[in-house]
Specification:
6-stranded antiparallel beta sheet, globular
Length: about 300
C-alpha cells in the first residue's frame, strides 16, 4: 500500500503527534554522482551451495564460500532530491525526525523497551500498517583492523546483499509470532522493513548505498545464500552485478534522519518493490579525519489488514 501523507496524518492525530517528515526539498538540489568499488556475488567455483558465516572465521579471516566480484559503479547523491524515491516504488524512503535520540544503544534492554516501542508507532504512522513486530536490531561501528566476529563487534557490511528471501521472510513470521496467528497474517500482505539511521554523528564514512528496485531484474540478479549462525541458519540474497542498476545515497545522513529499507514485501504484483539491494561503500568525498561510521538498524515485521 502507498505511504500515507504525513500532512494528513498530522492533521488527523489530535494528540501526541509524531513529528516526522519525509526528506524532500526540490529547491535545494545537491545531487551529484560518485564512483566507488562495490562487491557483488559470484557463485562458489566448485558449484556448492553458497553460504555466509555471521561471524568471521578467526583462523582464515573469511566468512563465505562464494567469490567477491568487484565493480566500479556510479552512486548518485540525492541529497535535496529525496522525493525522487519512495518505499513502494524504489524500495526505500528517507525521512527526518528519527526516533531514539536519547537512548543509550549500548543498553540492549533500553533499546528493546523504548526504541522498539517508538519505532512501532512511527512505522505504523508512516505506512498504515495494523501490526508491527520488531525482531532484532544491530549497532554497527566501523573499526578498521578489528574482526567482525561477535554481535558486539558488528561493522558496516561492504558487500551488496538483500537481508531476506521469500522463504526466510515467511520463516521469520513463524519464528516471531504465535503459531495461532501466523496463518491469517501470512494470508494478507506483510513486509520486513529495516529502519536505519546514524547514531551520534553524520554518516560521511562508509555510508549506505541503495539500489532502486526499478533497475533490478529479480529473476536474474539475486541468488539465495545460506546465512549460518552458530546455532541456526537463515537465508539472504547474494546480488550479481548488472550495468542496469541505479544506485542512490544521501550524503552525510545525520542522526535525526533515517531511511526505511524494504527487505521483503509479499505484494509481488509487478508494480510494487519487493526488496532492496544495499551495501556500505567507501565514499571518495569523505572528508579527511571524518569519524568512523556508527549506525543502528532495526528490522520489523509489518502486517496490514
Amino acid at each position: 500500500m502507498p505511504l500515507t501523507s504525513l500532512q494528513s496524518l498530522a492533521s488527523s492525530r489530535p494528540t501526541n503527534p509524531i513529528h516526522v517528515r519525509r526528506l524532500s526539498n526540490p529547491s535545494r538540489n545537491m545531487a551529484s554522482t560518485v564512483t566507488s568499488d562495490l562487491i557483488f556475488f559470484a557463485p562458489p567455483p566448485d558449484g556448492s551451495r553458497p553460504y555466509t558465516l555471521i561471524n568471521v572465521d578467526a583462523n582464515t579471516g573469511r566468512n563465505a564460500n562464494w567469490l567477491p566480484e568487484h565493480h566500479d559503479v556510479q552512486i548518485e547523491n540525492i541529497r535535496g532530491q529525496e522525493h525522487s524515491v519512495t518505499l513502494d516504488a524504489a524500495g526505500f524512503q528517507f525521512f527526518n525526525g528519527a526516533p531514539g535520540r536519547d537512548i543509550d544503544f549500548s543498553d540492549d534492554a533500553a533499546v528493546k523497551d523504548k526504541y522498539y516501542t517508538e519505532c512501532i508507532e512511527l512505522v505504523k504512522s508512516l505506512t498504515g500498517a495494523s501490526r508491527i513486530v520488531p525482531f532484532d536490531h544491530t549497532v554497527r561501528r566501523r573499526r578498521p583492523g578489528e574482526l567482525d566476529d561477535a554481535p558486539s563487534k558488528r561493522q558496516p557490511v561492504p558487500q551488496v546483499h538483500v537481508d531476506q528471501t521469500p522463504q526466510s521472510a515467511v520463516a521469520r513470521v513463524h519464528r516471531h509470532l504465535p503459531a495461532a496467528d501466523a496463518p491469517a497474517l501470512l494470508a494478507r500482505r506483510f513486509q520486513i522493513l529495516n529502519l536505519w539511521r546514524p547514531l551520534t554523528h553524520p554518516a560521511l564514512d562508509w555510508p549506505l548505498a541503495l539500489c532502486d528496485w526499478r533497475s533490478v531484474d529479480p529473476a536474474r540478479d539475486v541468488v539465495p545464500v545460506t546465512l549460518r549462525y552458530p546455532d541456526s541458519e537463515g537465508e539472504t540474497f547474494g546480488v550479481r552485478h548488472s550495468r542496469a542498476y541505479r544506485w542512490k545515497y544521501v550524503r552525510g545522513m545525520r542522526p535525526d534522519e533515517f531511511v526505511l529499507i524494504k527487505c521483503y514485501d509479499s505484494q509481488d504484483d509487478g508494480k510494487t518493490s519487493v526488496f532492496t539491494p544495499h551495501t556500505a561503500f567507501s565514499d571518495p568525498t569523505t572528508p579527511p579525519g571524518a569519524p568512523y561510521r556508527e549506525s543502528v538498524e532495526l528490522r520489523l515485521l509489518v502486517f496490514y489488514d
